[in-house]
């Protein structure tokens, strides 16, 4: 019984360490990340952290991977839960899911912090590129469906517009989590919705 349960135990422990590391990064930032902080957040010894992740960079990469997958899953749910026969509602839900809801939004703050590794790590760069590509795919689908059903009159190709929407989200989001007083979450939502109305010809977004 012990041998059969061990893989599940190890998986659970790894997941707990990934969660604890994500919490520590969100609170302290990558530069201040310490094994001690992760161990305390997970309620284990520092030796346990090193047993599962001898290299801290490997743990940080797992945090990044989990953050990307969780964020994308949340965005997909927001889209899927909107009425399937209302392309404007679905696009609106997708647009709202892509911006931080507050200056200390934990999900976006963690992602922006982890994306900083992309310039120095192929693994982190791949995750960042994958996130962008999959967000573009989400928007492309929403725009293509809207155009195909006559709900949108697109100002350019769905793919190009999707690139622009994701880039706007990233830019606005960075200013929000950086506490730029000139670009609060509500204002950023108004701006991106205004852009979406202009490029889809849909005034009720």
TrEMBL record:
Pfam families, alphabetized: TetR_C_6, TetR_N
Entries under InterPro entries matching the protein: BetI_C, Homeodomain-like_sf, HTH-type_TetR-like_transc_reg, HTH_TetR, Tet_transcr_reg_TetR-rel_C_sf
Keyword set, alphabetical order: DNA-binding, Repressor, Transcription, Transcription regulation
Top-rank taxon, per record: Bacteria
Residue ranges the UniProt entry marks as DNA-binding: 34-53
Listed GO MF terms: DNA-binding transcription factor activity; transcription cis-regulatory region binding
Annotated HTH tetR-type domain residues: 11-71
Signal peptide: none
Protein name: TetR family transcriptional regulator
